[in-house]
TrEMBL record:
Domain of life according to the entry: Eukaryota
Organism this protein belongs to: Aspergillus avenaceus
Statement: the UniProt record of this protein carries the keyword Signal: yes
Pfam annotation, one family: Arylsulfotran_2
InterPro entries, per the entry: Arylsulfate_ST (IPR053143), ASST-like (IPR039535)
Signal sequence range: 1-17
This protein's name: ASST-domain-containing protein
Length: 546
């Protein structure tokens, strides 16, 4: 136990900048899902623990789709480079694969939203403009349900999506029934403008069920459609300028290149691997349970190698690879490895992204609530956890993928405010606004004052998602004005009124009330932890020895 603590927490922490807050956070003493609450905004956001930061990190925003047992209101989420909330939303329900994509020369915020049955998603794909309005909703063609694993927009204005279809299949070769059921893995290419289906491909036409590494015993015997065998598990689709598709199959351990007519051009990894692996550690073909295969250039691709599927493990930790293929000699080699910092294992989900500006490599660790930015050759530059390390394995807070992009958000709704009359202050935030550098305090004598009648009486620089503006003895009809770095006025809060009152007498100072409350919460928390530890000691012990 003690060595485990030293190895997993104390050493990594000492190697960076030690802080007790960070240690408690990582051990889960602040809970499975530490959050930050706001006065002016109704949703909470995960509190981050920044373990490493470097000025070489790309100056973009981080895009997550948090969910999990301890994430009560899932939805898309954007952080800034420091892990401060920029935008989050719960009106879509569970979202996956939030990213920025270009369509007809314009940037969109895109994601999947819908329901999932534990294996596949049943939903649609959303495209939001910079004001967070829905501009397009893309659906799967042929009356199918859009699956959560991919929504990739190509340079030709088409969308690549995955579909899981329950089909009848002979499963005798894997110890199942002759009239068995499988989840077949399909992908579609759809014209976004017209919704027309341009191409569809299905795994069952090209892959034999016995090429899977997934054990049919894991899912009953698949004699019922409701108990279908997920033998393929397609989890990414990409396309290059030659029109060739690249797909990842988690349960085949393969990355497959498919021609525009649907024939298999080559297979990397798995039981039908066509490449000689000339990497030192066999990683160029030896990845397992992987995610997110992406073209980088003609013969170069990236992939997220989970190396584990629940209790099945081929590697003690998860990592990303950049792999180079040579089509003359049919060899594969690993150019760069991106190891999980502190070598944790993430046994599902995850993504690798080569950042366009810097060539840094950004990894979302999937089931582990963490994201890391590496230099191209694998040095950890920035490392952030948004849930405790001690609980990574459970996936209680997780994001299917994580990305970094530049983004301009200009919400149409006004900034949100919460006025505290007693403390003569106002909290202000503006969900989704990216360009705000500070807030002007403006006042007018008349509640129906025209814009021109407001005069600026104070300026406060923005701090994180929510800024607290002290109003001192400013009274009258007030509003806050968001301004950008050039001083342009971006938006106005609603007008609120603060009258000039005398000092409050004989009420408990708020700070004292706060500290009493904190002491009570702390006492309860210690009690709960002790009770929980006593109850859970067996489980924890068996997990530690896992
Ligand atoms: C885009 O369209 C061109 C012309 O039809 C085609 O050659 C190219 O392969 C397409 N690219 C993608 C990524 O679909």
């Amino acid at each position: 136990m003690a060595t485990w603590l030293v190895f997993w927490f104390v050493l990594p922490l000492l190697a960076t900048a030690f802080s007790w807050h960070s240690l408690w956070y990582e051990l889960g003493l602040f809970g499975a899902h530490p959050t930050i609450q706001y006065e002016s905004f109704y949703l909470e956001s995960p509190e981050v623990d920044v373990l490493k930061w470097d000025p070489r990190c790309d100056d973009g925003y981080v895009f997550l789709s948090p969910r999990g047992h301890f994430y009560p209101e899932p939805g898309p989420l954007i952080y800034d480079n420091a892990g401060s909330l920029v935008w989050t939303e719960n009106r879509f329900g569970m979202a996956m694969d939030l990213k920025v994509q270009r369509y007809k020369g314009q940037d969109y915020l895109t994601f999947w939203a819908g329901d999932d049955d534990g294996t596949r998603g049943l939903g649609s794909y959303y495209m939001l403009d910079s004001s967070y309005e829905i501009i397009h909703v893309v659906s799967a063609a042929n009356g199918r349900n859009g699956d959560l694993h991919e929504f990739k927009i190509t340079e030709n204005g088409t969308a690549l999506i995955t579909v899981y279809e329950i089909c009848q299949a002979d499963l005798m070769s894997v110890g199942g029934p002759k009239d068995g059921w499988v989840y077949d893995g399909l992908f579609q290419e759809i014209d976004i403008e017209t919704g027309e289906l341009l191409f569809e491909w299905r795994a069952l036409d090209h892959y034999r069920v016995e090429e899977t590494y997934f054990d049919i015993e894991e899912k009953g015997h698949s004699a019922e459609p409701g108990d279908a065998f997920d033998y393929f598990h397609i989890n990414s689709v990409d396309k290059n300028a030659d029109g060739n598709y690249l797909i990842s199959s988690r349960y085949m351990h393969t990355i497959t290149c498919i021609s525009p007519t649907g024939t298999i051009l080559w297979v990397l990894g798995g039981k039908r691997n066509m490449f000689t692996d000339i990497s030192a550690d066999g990683s160029a073909t030896g990845f397992t349970w992987q995610h997110n295969a992406r073209w980088i250039s003609d013969g170069v691709l990236t992939v997220f190698d989970n190396g584990a599927h629940e209790h099945l493990r081929t590697s003690d930790h998860t990592r990303g690879y950049m792999i180079e293929l040579d089509f003359e000699s049919w060899t594969a080699t690993t150019l760069h490895v991106y190891d999980s910092p502190g070598h944790f294992s993430s046994h599902s989900q995850g993504s690798v992204q080569v950042l366009p500006g810097s060539d840094n490599v950004f990894i979302g660790w999937g089931k582990a609530s963490a994201y890391t930015e590496f230099s191209l050759d694998g040095e950890v530059l920035c490392d952030t956890h948004w849930g405790p390390r001690a609980l990574f394995w459970f996936g209680w807070v997780k994001s299917y993928r994580a990305y970094k992009y530049s983004w301009v958000g200009r919400p149409r709704s006004p900034p949100d405010i919460a006025v505290n009359d007693e403390l003569r202050s106002v909290h202000v935030s503006w969900n989704g606004a990216t360009d705000v550098v500070g807030w002007l305090v403006q006042r007018a004598d008349d509640s129906n004052a025209l814009d021109s009648e407001f005069e600026t009486v104070d300026y406060v620089p923005k701090e994180g998602f929510e800024t607290t503006v002290g109003l001192g003895d400013i009274d009258g009809h007030l509003r806050l004005v968001a301004i950008d770095s050039s001083g342009e006025e971006l938006g106005y809060s609603n007008v609120f009124t603060l009258s000039h009152t005398g000092s409050n007498i004989l009420s408990l100072p708020a700070s004292m009330e706060d500290s009493l409350q904190h002491m009570l919460i702390a006492a309860c928390a210690v009690g709960a932890i002790l009770a929980g530890a006593w109850q859970g000691r067996k489980r924890v012990l068996s997990w530690l020895h896992y």
